[in-house]
Amino acid sequence: MISSGILLSADQFILVTLLVKIGVMTSLATILVRYTFFRRILLAEERGRREDWQFASLFGSLVAIGVVCRLLLGYAGADITLAGTLLIGLLTGPLIGFVTGSALGIIPALSGEVLAVPMGALFGLAGGLVSITCPTRDAVWNFSPITLMNVYRFLKSSIVTSRPRWQVALVFACVVMEILRVTVSQRFASEGWLFSLTPEGPLVYFGVFVSTVACLGIPLKIWNSTRIEAMLEKQAALVTRARFDALQSQINPHFLFNTLNSIAATVRTDPRKARQIVQKLSTILRRLLSTEEDLVTLRDELAFIDSYLDIELVRFGKDKLRINRHIDPDTLDVLIPNMVLQPIVENAIKHGLSSKVDGGSIAISSRLVENAVVIEVADDGVGVPAVKLNSVMTAGIGLSNVNERLMVIFGSQFDLDFHSQPDAGTRVTIKIPDRAPLDLVAKEEREEQDVHSYGDR
Question: 267-438 belongs to which homologous superfamily?
Answer without folding.
Answer: Histidine kinase-like ATPase, C-terminal domain (3.30.565.10)
